[in-house]
Design a protein that fits this description.
Helix content: 40-55%
Structural class: mainly alpha
Radius of gyration: 20 Å
Number of strands: 5
Strand order of the largest sheet: 1-5-4
Distance between the termini: 66 Å
Number of helices: 7
Largest sheet: 3 strands, antiparallel
Length: 170
């Protein structure tokens, strides 16, 4: 690939490589990274240690976002139906909305979505996640199974409050 880019640059100039290759490459990849980041990053999303991780928990540790017309039309709804994708990646995109509605009652409180304000909400979520989700640390003060669940924190100590499971008496 480098040889081909060098040849095109030598023949047609660096401006052609910039306009026809580098800018489109950066444009597509910046959206790919932003969308993937937001589907897996939110202050409310748990991260599990090896002791508590299961496939179902790992699959539920994602969030549906809304990306407006672009997400629904040009990206076939993958931004808006990502939680479903983690469970059943073989469902065709034209059935994803219907299947997402079907899994919501099954997942209950474990289903997460942030669909406010369309494309502007997507950008707001990007800002919020970048500010709040700076690292993952143990759920300090948690008891029971919650002690092996980790949540995002930031330098100001903001994050999800520790979970306290009731201690079972014997």
């Amino acid at each position: 690939m480098a040889a081909a880019l060098y040849f095109v640059g030598s023949t047609y100039g660096f401006k052609s490589v910039l306009v026809w290759y580098l800018i489109p490459y950066l444009w597509v990849n910046h959206w790919l990274v932003a969308i993937t980041y937001l589907q897996h990053t939110d202050p409310s999303l748990p991260h599990y240690s090896g002791a508590t991780w299961t496939f179902a928990r790992g699959a539920a540790a994602t969030i549906d976002r809304e990306f407006g017309f672009i997400g629904r039309t040009l990206m076939h709804g993958i931004v808006e139906t990502h939680v479903l994708h983690h469970y059943i990646s073989t469902i065709p995109f034209y059935h994803a909305d219907e299947a997402t509605e079907a899994i919501k009652p099954v997942m209950g409180r474990h289903y997460r979505s942030d669909t406010k304000n369309g494309s502007i909400g997507f950008l707001q979520s990007l800002y919020k996640s970048a500010r709040w989700c700076q690292w993952v640390e143990p759920n300090e003060g948690a008891e029971g199974e919650g002690k092996d669940v980790h949540f995002f924190r930031n330098r100001n100590g903001n994050g999800v409050a520790p979970a306290r499971s009731p201690v079972k008496s014997q």
